[in-house]
Design a protein that fits this description.
Layout: H1 2-16, H2 24-32, H3 36-48, H4 56-68, H5 72-84, H6 92-104, H7 108-120, H8 128-140, H9 144-156, H10 167-178, H11 183-195, H12 203-214, H13 219-231, H14 240-251, H15 256-268
Helix pairs in contact: 1-4, 2-3, 3-4, 4-5, 5-6, 6-7, 7-8, 8-9, 9-10, 10-11, 11-12, 12-13, 13-14, 14-15
Keywords: Signal
Signal peptide: 1-20
InterPro entries: Sel1-like, Sel1_AlgK, TPR-like_helical_dom_sf
Length: 275
């Protein structure tokens, strides 16, 4: 009864809001009729305060309505709300229940979140082997956070997940993630090519991935290009002007080490007027 009252109240507020989207009436009508996708979308708008005042509790109530109808994105969101206690009580056991329901529908997000729950023993009895199996499953299904997580574990070895260091596997996971356009994966793939970790050393390929990541705003990739130009690292020739350009781009993101390097270039007048 209380939940229904909250839902009706939220509809009134959402409809009255001057900034509500043009489709709000249609969305509300569809949600009221029990359309799971509409209920989820309306819940998301209210939960995040888009087109109406932010109301975590009411947003959660709409998403729960959707999740109970089996809508997979809503099941993941409800699980996350229970896990963190946002919009509802904090209950990691209920969170896991919803992750399991989403996972049963092959939700890669649900599978990965369930893997984390098993790995940490959060809301379920800890089972590292099960956590690893689910993380691998999510990665194989193309879920980038799982690919990155797995790549990092293989890169250094991870005692808490019983993952043995394997640079070739780390390289493979980063490569798969980089193929999706993930800038962090591109950066790390560039580093592995430059260092010859898990693959043959290749500065040309390293630079290729640094450039790809840098163009997406990755500050360390921008700095690495600066470094290549500054020292004339193959395949680039020394070019202080280009080095300054990339170092400036990186330093704008407030990275301390980049600012130190940029200060050195100003002090010595390298690629810029001496200052």
């Amino acid at each position: 009864m209380i939940k229904n009252f909250l839902l009706m109240l939220s509809i009134s507020a959402f409809s009255a809001n001057l900034y509500a989207a043009e489709y709000s009436k249609e969305l509300i009508a569809s949600a009221q009729k029990g359309n799971a996708q509409a209920q989820y979308e309306l819940g998301q708008l209210i939960y995040h305060g888009k087109g109406t005042a932010k109301d975590k509790n009411t947003g959660f109530a709409w998403m729960l309505e959707s999740a109970e109808k089996g809508y997979e994105p809503a099941q993941v969101s409800v699980g996350e709300s229970y896990y963190w206690g946002i919009g509802t009580i904090k209950d990691k056991f209920k969170a896991v229940e919803w992750y399991q329901k989403a996972s049963a529908q092959k939700s890669v997000n649900g599978i990965y979140l369930l893997s984390q729950a098993y790995a940490k023993g959060s809301g379920v009895q800890q089972n590292i082997a099960k956590g690893n199996q689910l993380r691998l499953q999510a990665a194989e299904l193309g879920y980038v956070p799982a690919m990155i997580d797995l790549a990092q574990a293989y890169n250094t070895g991870q005692s808490e997940s019983n993952t043995v260091k394997d640079l070739k596997k780390s390289f493979y996971c980063y490569e798969k993630a980089a193929d999706t356009g993930d800038r962090d994966a591109m950066l790390n793939l560039g580093v592995m090519y430059e260092e010859g970790d898990g693959t043959a050393q290749d500065n040309t390929k390293a630079l290729k991935y640094y450039l790809a990541a840098a163009q997406k705003g990755e500050s360390l990739a921008q700095f690495n290009i600066c470094r290549f130009y500054f020292y004339g690292t193959h395949p680039l020739k020394r070019d202080f002007t280009s080095a300054f350009k990339w170092c400036s781009a990186s330093a704008q993101q407030d990275e301390y080490y980049n600012k130190l390097f940029l200060g050195r270039m100003y002090a010595q007048g390298l690629g810029v007027k001496k200052d």
